[in-house]
Each structure stands twice: as C-alpha cells, then as structure tokens.
Amino acid sequence: MAALLIPRRNRGMRTRLGCLSHKSDSYNDFTAILPDKPNRALKRLSTEEATRWADSFDVLLSHKYGLAAFRAFLKTEFSEENLEFWLACEDFKKTRSAAKLASKAQRIFEEFIDVQAPREVNIDFQTRELTRRNVQEPSLSCFDQAQGKVHSL
After folding, report:
1. Distances in whole angstroms, Cα of residue 7 to Cα of each of 45, 108, 139, 152
2. Rama region for 149: left / alpha / beta (φ>0; ψ in -120 to 50; rest)
3. Which end of the chain is more exposed for a tag (fewer CB within 10 A), N or C?
4. Which helix (H) or strand (E) holds 134?
5. What number is the average pLDDT over the span 11-27?
6. How far, in Å, CA of 68 to CA of 48, rounded?
7. Hey, which CATH number is domain 49-77, 1.10.196.10, 3.40.50.20, 3.40.5.60, 3.40.1190.10?
8. What are phi and psi of 94, to 5 degrees?
9. pTM as predicted
10. DSSP string covering 83-125, please?
11. Where does the record place the RGS domain (predicted)?
C-alpha cells in the first residue's frame, strides 16, 4: 500500500517530500504547506522522518504533518477528494454498528461516488455501479473496488 493514491513513479510528490532530505537536521519552514502555525514538534521534525514519507504512504498518512503536507499537495493537483474518500473509507471500515454502517455507506456514496457528487472521485461506470449495488446491502468491504481505482490514480 506504499503507493496509495500517488504511484511511486510520480515524481511530483516524491520530489516535494524528497527535498526535505536536502535540508539540515530538521525542516523548519513547513509554513507554506501546513494550515496551522508551526510549533516545537514541527521544528523537531527530522529530515529522516520526512524522507520516510516519500517511501511509505502508510507512514505519511499516520503522521500529522505528513497528512497535512499530502493534503496540501493534492489541493495543488485539484484532487484532494481522493484523499478524503480514502480516509472516509478507512473510517467506514472501523464501523462496528450495523445501524451506522448503512447510513455511513450512503453518506460516502452520495459525497464521493454518485454522479455529480459534491466531491466526486474519478472512477469508471462499472465500479460506480458495483459500488451502488454494494451500498444497498453494505458491508465493511463495499467500497474496496472504488478504493482500488482511486489507489491506481
């Protein structure tokens, strides 16, 4: 899953994250890509940690500043809905209540999958229709194929 949403061959994100390794022991000017003010924890962010983001998508998403940096990058590419969809699906998979499962599935479908959805992700017709059927009887895996298509972007 290291290439999630942005393939390893995509030089744009790797270059932006890789530039961190050219700095000294820490990257002190994250202010251009982060929405909030830098704090001491950010100033202690090592280049090694930031460089690991370019190698592991899981590490990138699990780090507060890595997630913020990736979100900022996707905004510049006009594709932040891909990350938001991915995160919504990951949260959906943690749902344990059958009652909540159906309502969450419907909300995700209406927000990201349905034609003309406010934050529609780019998937093919077959995947959209399969997901539509899956949402009618939702399971924790009902968005897996759509997530796979977003991953391949």
Report:
1. 24, 24, 28, 7
2. alpha
3. N
4. helix 125-136
5. 45
6. 17
7. 1.10.196.10
8. -90, -5
9. 0.62
10. HHHHHHHHHHTT---HHHHHHHHHHHIIIIISTT-TT-----H
11. 56-153
Give how far Cα 25 sits from Cα of 20, 30, 41, 50, 69, Å: 10, 14, 14, 11, 19
Backbone angles phi, psi at 90, to 5 degrees: -65, -40
Alpha-carbon radius of gyration of the chain: 17
What CATH architecture does domain 79-152 belong to?
Orthogonal Bundle (1.10)
Is there a contact between 5 and 151 (Cβ–Cβ < 8 Å)?
yes
Using N-to-C axis directions, what is the helix angle for 80-92 and 98-108, rounded to 10°?
A: 170
Q: Report helix, strand or coil for 71.
A: helix
**Extents of the domains making up the chain:** 49-77, 79-152
Answer for the pair 112, 120: CB distance below 8 angstroms, yes or no: yes
pLDDT tens per residue across span 31-57: 555 545 545 445 567 778 777 777 777
Nearest Cα to Cα of residue 61 among 21, 117, 17, 29 = 17
Q: Which two tokens stand for residue 27?
A: 């990257």
